[in-house]
Amino acid sequence: MTSTPASPQRRAPEHWPASARFARRHEAPTPRVPLLTTPPPTPEGRRDLRTLPKAHLHLHFTGAMRPQTLVEMATEQGVRLPPHLLDLDPLAVPADARGWFRFQRSYDSARALVRSEATMRRIVREAAEDEALEGSVRLEMQVDPTSYAPWVGGITPALEIVLDEAAAASRDTGVDVAIIVAASRIRHPLDARTLARLAARYAGTGAGKVVGFGLSNDERMGETSAFSAAFRIARQAGLASLPHGGELLGPQSVREVVAALAPKRLGHGVRTTEDPDLLRRLIDEGVAFEVCPTSNVQLGVYHDLGHVPLPTLVEAGAEIALSADDPLLFHSRLLAQYAAARDVHGMSDAALADLARSSIRASLADEASKARWCARIDQWLASDPATHQAT
């Protein structure tokens, strides 16, 4: 038995023809688009954070997209964006309305617009340009090529496009852009093995190379141990183990990640602070923490930036890389994370320089580059704060 389809006038907007969606989109007010690279003001007597050399080690591919780029792509494709993608300040959302489900819907909406090689190249290029504006010297961007493979002929072309543009953008911007291939917890572990083998083919340390293998998406999904074979493949190829853990779930989950995946860095890891013995163990083993304060607040892990346990990690001696995670969705880039460390947690310029050095040490760049960048941090700290004030 077949049903009579609804008339076009009664269909939900997502089922309208593209031309109708496009027209409807242009009837609506132009969404307010935040400019994420606007620098925070530099307080009197402080040094400009834009000129502090730093490494950005936790940035997702789609989440790195500029809001204006998202709007332009949606307009071109006739897609009406969910209002909360651009029209709300994420940190103004009530704590009980935050969470993973809302975040994932937004991420999926943005990722669905990435449908061509040109768009993929644009995301990498603009991310590198934005990092340069904020003083980053190294970017390690995380990508799951599976998500973009249908539009460019497979996972291998998808990864090669990202790597090629990373190398070109590095030459043009001066930011060393390397890539982390990340499997997803919501896909089968055999898919992770396929990605690990692909990542191994492009392993290296410099710009345009794969430097690590990650595991992202909802921490609460899947069995961590089921991905151990994929990470073993990656490690045998010289790739660093860089899984997510310790944000949505607590210390027991971190123990499982450590036991099964032997991380060199832990994506987030902030909830390790709930178990001081575990925290001490990871620090002693040299595991670094990719701390993304705005992400923690946006996902409802902590009520506000003041509750993010950055000071606890610092006081414990952890190696920390402040990161922005998904600026497109959280409306907050790397520079804002350093500004929060300064303005919310009261960190001095010397403490911020230590954080920047920590991010450099935690990166997967070669030792000569690390030494050169750390020397520039020393120069930043030795400079007169008066020379950093806006005219």
Automatic annotation (TrEMBL):
Cofactors demanded by this protein: Zn(2+)
Signal peptide interval: none
Keyword field contains Metal-binding: yes
Keyword list, A-Z: Hydrolase, Metal-binding, Zinc
Documented EC number(s): 3.5.4.4
Residue span(s) of domain Adenosine deaminase: 53-380
Stretches the record annotates as Disordered: 1-46
GO BP annotations, alphabetical order: purine ribonucleoside monophosphate biosynthetic process
GO molecular function term, any single one: deaminase activity
UniProt keyword Cytoplasm present: no
NCBIfam families the UniProt entry points to: aden_deam, PRK09358.1-5
Family note: Belongs to the metallo-dependent hydrolases superfamily. Adenosine and AMP deaminases family.
Descriptive protein name: Adenosine deaminase
Native source species: Schaalia canis
